[in-house]
TrEMBL record:
Pfam families: Orn_Arg_deC_N. The keyword Chloroplast does not apply. Pathway: Amino-acid biosynthesis; L-lysine biosynthesis via DAP pathway; L-lysine from DL-2,6-diaminopimelate: step 1/1. Keywords: Amino-acid biosynthesis, Decarboxylase, Lyase, Lysine biosynthesis, Pyridoxal phosphate. Signal peptide: none annotated. It comes from Candidatus Faecivivens stercoravium. Gene3D superfamilies: Alanine racemase, Lyase, Ornithine Decarboxylase, Chain A, domain 1. Its cofactor is pyridoxal 5'-phosphate. Residues 37-293 form the Orn/DAP/Arg decarboxylase 2 N-terminal domain. It catalyses: meso-2,6-diaminopimelate + H(+) = L-lysine + CO2. This is Diaminopimelate decarboxylase. PROSITE patterns: ODR_DC_2_2 (PS00879). The keyword Iron does not apply.
Length: 303
């Protein structure tokens, strides 16, 4: 992010004098530039419109920075929201965010959080394990609702990032493993639950990824799995959620791929895979977080 300096030699953030902000609000002070956030959101949304005919939903991963104003901005920019806790879900609701555009994640959701999601009518719940699948099925039946769910799949992809922020490998604690047959078993169990509506599958291969290739490979693996599901169960999944993980500039050496280029290549990979397998091109969801807010924030200190 480029910063400006005014005639007094003061840093300017979003049109505001940083010294004046510090004097008014005290320090340390977090300053978020709304226009930088909005520009990033628009770039994501417009890339889907341009390269995927608009058949997708960008969901802001609010774990990156959650407050009511962020949800209001995401709503105004036409984005969905990825939430990972009852707190984020509550905050989104208080901000008036449309619940049908909320995706509820987390590998340790409590029954209370799941009830909250059902009561609010969230658009999609991403199920992470067999215990959650069983719990959610029972709660949905008890409440007389049939929520849309996606299953989180471990595609076995090396994301070429730090081992502590890789999440798509076979031994990840998140999701159902593809290679072991666990993922297909989860699909069959979900389809056997009359209180659940399985709409698609989700994967997230890691964070701070600066290459397109791992995302392309993940997309190809996931489309193949969707085709395998149809072959084995007769059920056609209509949604593919590729998660987030796009890198940002932490150092001068970091060189993230422009999102438009990423979206163009991933879109081509999805279409090509679907065509080769004679499978319908799926509706896609993507969940950028830090790449929306990471370069929009500045922390002010007094020394």
């Amino acid at each position: 992010m480029d910063h400006k300096v005014n005639g007094q030699g003061h840093l300017v953030l979003g049109g505001a004098d940083a010294v004046a902000l510090a004097e008014k609000y005290g320090t340390p002070l977090y300053v978020m530039e709304e226009e930088v956030i909005r520009a990033a959101m628009r770039a994501y949304r417009q890339s889907v419109e341009r390269f995927y005919d608009g058949k997708g939903l960008i969901c802001y991963a609010s774990k990156a920075f959650a407050c009511k104003e962020m949800y209001r901005i995401a709503k105004a920019e036409g984005l969905g929201a990825d939430v990972v806790s009852g707190g984020e879900l509550y905050t989104a609701g208080k901000a008036g965010f449309p619940m049908e555009k909320v995706v509820f994640h987390g590998n340790n959701k409590t029954p209370e959080e799941l009830r909250m999601a059902l009561d609010l009518g969230v658009g999609r719940i991403v199920v992470d394990n067999f215990e959650e699948l069983e719990t959610l099925s029972a709660l949905a039946a008890e409440n007389g609702v049939r929520p849309n769910i996606q299953l989180r799949i471990k595609p076995g992809i090396d994301a070429h990032t730090h081992k502590f922020i890789m999440t798509g490998q076979i031994d990840s604690k998140f999701g159902f493993a593809l290679e072991t047959g666990e993922a297909m078993e989860a699909v069959k169990q979900a389809l056997a639950c009359p209180s659940l509506n399985l709409t698609g599958v989700h994967c997230h291969i890691g964070s701070q990824i600066h290459e397109v290739t791992p995302f392309i490979r993940a997309a190809e693996v996931m489309v193949q799995f969707m085709a395998d599901v149809r072959q084995e169960t007769g059920h056609t999944l209509g949604e593919l959620n590729l998660g987030g993980g796009y890198g940002i500039r932490y150092t001068d050496e970091d060189d993230p791929v422009p999102y438009a280029a990423y979206m163009e290549e991933v879109s081509e990979a999805i279409r090509a895979s679907a065509a080769a397998l004679q499978f319908p091109v799926p509706f896609i969801l993507m969940e950028p977080g830090r790449s929306i807010v990471g370069e929009a924030g500045t922390t002010l200190y007094t020394v």
